[in-house]
Amino acid sequence: MPLILGIGNPLRGDDGFGPELVFRIRGTSIHAIDAGTTPENYLGAVVRMKPKLVLVADAADMGASPGELALLGRDEIDQVGGFSTHTMSPALFMRQLEDLCGARILMLAVQPASTAFGQGLSREVEGSLEVLLTVFEEFLIDPVP
């Protein structure tokens, strides 16, 4: 089972994608952590969980259409901008996490429509979130006995 690590600031529009994804999958069989804007504070917790795969869910300006999703490897992160709400570079964080726990680390990125303060998720990112939840329910969430 993968670990979902939600990163972002819910007070900044679509930057809240990661934390919102974590919120919506709570209570399922998927392990998830809301790391907010300081994912480095959760390195120890992730290492103790010993995941084989960590999906870092975050908004990223990829120059794509709002709501577009991408699965990015660590080396691809350096080519993507728009992580201004984080205290540590996502690529550096992913590299450090990979070194510490040996898991495969991928970023589940969404193209934000807006990261303005005081905004909720855009309809585009909300739509992508709904698609992800459907996929997770179909393929990742184990039925509760």
Overview of the structural elements:
This protein has helices spanning 17-25, 43-49, 74-77, 90-101, 123-139; strands spanning 3-7, 31-36, 53-59, 69-73, 104-110. The chain is α/β, with parallel strands linked by helices and 145 residues long. The chain has a five-stranded mixed beta sheet with strand order 2-1-3-5-4, with helices on both faces. Strand 1 (3-7), helix 1 and strand 2 (31-36) form a beta-alpha-beta unit. The two termini are 17 Å apart. 39% of the residues are buried.
SSE inventory with pairings:
Elements: E1 3-7, H1 17-25, E2 31-36, H2 43-49, E3 53-59, E4 69-73, H3 74-77, H4 90-101, E5 104-110, H5 123-139
Parallel strand pairs: 1-2, 1-3, 3-5
Antiparallel strand pairs: 4-5
Helix pairs in contact: 1-5
Q: What is the H/E string?
A: EHEHEEHHEH
How many runs of DSSP E, i.e. beta strands? 5
Whole-angstrom Rg:
14 Å
**Mass-distribution shape:** globular
Distance between the termini: 17 Å
Biggest pleated-sheet summary: 5 strands, mixed
Question: What is the structure about, briefly put?
Answer:
The protein is of the alpha/beta class and about 140 residues long. The chain has five helices and five strands; from the N terminus they run E-H-E-H-E-E-H-H-E-H.
